Amino acid sequence: MGLKQNLHNLKEKYKGTKIAPAFNALHTFLYTPNDTARGGTHIKAADDLKRTMNTVIMALIPCLIFGMFNAGYQHYLAVGEIQAVTNGFFSSEFWNLQNFVLGFWKILPLLIISYGVGLGIEFLFAVIKGHEVEEGYLVTGMLVPLIVPIDIPWWMLIVAVAFGVVIGKEVFGGTGMNILNPALTIRAFLFFAYPTWMSGDKVWVQGAVERTKEIANGSTADAISGETILGSLAQSHPVDYSVMDMFFGFIPGSVGETSTLLILLGGLFLIFTKVGSWRIMLSATLGALVMGYIFNVVVDAGWITETSKFYGLMSTEFWHHLIIGGMAFGIVYMATDPVTGSQTNKGKWIYGFLIGFISIMIRVFNPAYPEGVMLAILLMNVFAPTIDHYVVQGNVKKRLKRGKLKTA
Amino acid sequence: MSNDIKIKKGLDIKLKGEAEKTIEKAVLSNFYTLRPEDFHGVIPRLIYKEGAKVKAGEPIFHDKSNEAVKFVSPVSGEIIEIARGEKRRIVGIKIQADKEQIFQDYGKMDVNAVDADTIKAHLLASGCWTFIKQRPYDIIAKTDQSPKAIFISGYDSAPLAADLDYVLQGKEAELQAAITAVGKLTDGKVHVSVGAKSNSPLAGLSGITLHKVSGPHPCGNVGTQINKIDPVNKGETVWTIHAQDLVIIGELLLTGKFNAERIVALVGSSVKKPRYFVTKIASEVATMIYDNGVDQNGNDRIISGNVLSGKQIGPDGYLGYYNNILTIIPEGDDYELFGWNKPIFDKISTSRALTFSWLTPNKVYDLDTNMNGEHRNFVLTGNYEEVFPLDIYPLQILKSCMYQDLDEMEALGMYEVAPEDFALTEFICVSKQPHQKIIREGLDLMIEEIG
């Protein structure tokens, strides 16, 4: 009782002051407020935005933990200390403390930076503009560490997060008003500002960059290759990962994007809880498969030969596109952002399909960087209002027509 | 074509404290207050001053913009107080009832023998016009427009709603008289909807088009029925009348008296023995409530109307002009530790985000008035559509009201809606936005700008 009463007294004391939003953010984290419904419905359903966002975070936690193990696994595998997994998903080569510890200490700072900088800015804006601290960043803050390379320098992440939160979200008025997905804005900023840290074959495995520098300085140690599967395919290198490796996620890549299995489970959880849109997830998957299939057909027809630089990615079996790269992660956690996505149910089908379709197209044709899901989602974020406009116009036209029939 | 209306989208909110089917005569209160705020958009001009004696059914004020629309006293007695709010706006006209009730006699009328103009004048003079509301705008019907159709819902699907089959039984004669009369005021049909499994006295009336409705709330909302039967287009008007108010209209036509008696359901989890009472429009509620097992010192909310669209009134409040239930539920002005992330079993939710009401669709809930969260910008999409059966985009129309784009509001269907149509979307709103208020303000803007 004591804590509740004390916090209540503090809330009353801060009411109307500049500090109130910051205090309320912490207070409501502990206690759902005592506000009662006024002037509208006298009862309210149980869900609030915090609960919704918390559900997404819960769906992300398995990816985060897997990412920690995978960071260690990829590192030790690359330096030759351990053998590749052999026993399916629960292989002991993967799930061991050594892997986890390395990943934990690499990823925890990313998480702290992401939340610390992002929430700091959110609090600052809330205090300056006098609105409540909104929950959107709880999810963004979790997404950011999962979609960057493990060795990303901290200062870059700090700059990118600050940019993404301010330019991507706050200038529009905060959660609910932004046009672009904030997490992807952060990633796009990194991608265009520091491309050498966001692509290539050195950034995806912990230690690879450092080792390259050592070699350049005369070290005799072996270079660590951290090429992603997409990187290999783009350069028509042989891929030495099995389909099951790709599906389980024992592959190099951004921190949390590798395990299609866990992403799939997270996606099903989001669909079950009705927090994520099944329409977008399903249609994006279909879009990706269709585009992948078209490329397969083109290759089968002999229009593209092995001499083409697109051959590697175009000949990839169409459904493999879903389990390599960031495709699955993007579809489940990024495309479904309700604020930046299409807001009508019909629009979601179109929006999702085009995300999948364009992702694979960019992935195949992008010469500098063999991945397209980030750019496809950002592109479709921009077009989502247009899609909605035409969907809603359908309803408007129906109404006009109805009126004309009556008066005629 | 079948006249039945089946809807799938919606949500039945099952609450504790449904009225048992017994009718008691409430101890008649001595005080009655007409509140002009019950009549949206009406600016009252008083006919009588404080201290005047009035008969039951005698006009005490009329609409400033249209003198023909008269508002009558529910009882005979003395006007003891004209309560005024800001800018001397009249907020209540309080009448102390006489021991002996004297009625203003408007004369019997044979509805089959008279023409539309006579009926219209009769309803206006006797104050019964106020029971007729119109769409667009959800206001008292304008006197210079003839509706393309009239809609009457004989089925209330709102939480804890009064069972209209039950409260209307034995009123066939009054209902028939009223239907015949208002039917003459339109060139179109009189659409009456009853529950699919009901034995409503409305079903047997002549001069109506009967519809059977089934599905979750808001299938009983007249707005849903209009949208499914004959939606309002630009330039058209439809009228709606509460089924219970037809009884008052009918009685006026048959006997010449404006009898403000109404059967009211006293419901909600804070009521010890919820049941039906006979009381009068605008009656003080305190005696009725506290005589019947509501704790005097309890921390309860008293609502004139249902929990979704009713109006909060204090213990010294009065029954609203259009309401036929009084709901009393506990206030929820307390904090809840980790209320935003712990699993929830005792509240209703349409999601499954650690909320488990989907497991128990038939469970009866005891909800309080807590917001269960804080007000936010619109974030989630697609969830309103699950509970919104109208062929309208709810999120888009709400946003168009917020940025006050009149063209867009019109195009998206504002002529068809009333605030109560957005009660369910407001209930489930994750961002806790005041949907009904947004729609009401949007409609008011349209009245002001378009008229």
Explained architecture:
The complex is a heterodimer of chains A (408) and B (451). Chain A is mainly alpha-helical. In chain A, 62% of the residues lie in helices and 0% in strands. Chain A has one domain. Chain A has helices spanning 2-14, 20-30, 49-78, 97-129, 136-146, 154-168, 182-193, 195-198, 208-216, 229-234, 243-248, 260-272, 278-300, 311-314, 327-334, 345-365, 373-407, and one strand at residues 31-32. Chain B has 4 domains: 5-9 and 117-255, Rossmann fold (3-Layer(aba) Sandwich), CATH 3.40.50; 20-27 and 261-330, Ubiquitin-like (UB roll); 31-97, Beta Barrel (OB fold (Dihydrolipoamide Acetyltransferase, E2P)); 371-449, no CATH class. Chain B has 10 helices and 21 strands. In chain B, strands 1-14-13-12-15-10-11 form a 7-stranded mixed β-sheet, sandwiched between helices. In chain B, strands 2-17-16-20-18-19 form a 6-stranded mixed β-sheet, covered by helices on one side. In chain B, strands 3-9-8-5 form a 4-stranded antiparallel β-sheet, with no helix packed on it. In chain B, strand 10 (132-135) and strand 11 (139-140) form a beta hairpin. Chain B is globular and about 65 Å long. The model of chain B has no long low-confidence stretch (mean pLDDT 91). At the A-B interface, helix 1, helix 2, strand 1, helix 3 and helix 17 of A face strand 21, helix 9 and helix 10 of B. Strand 1 of chain A pairs antiparallel with strand 21 of chain B, so a sheet runs across the interface.
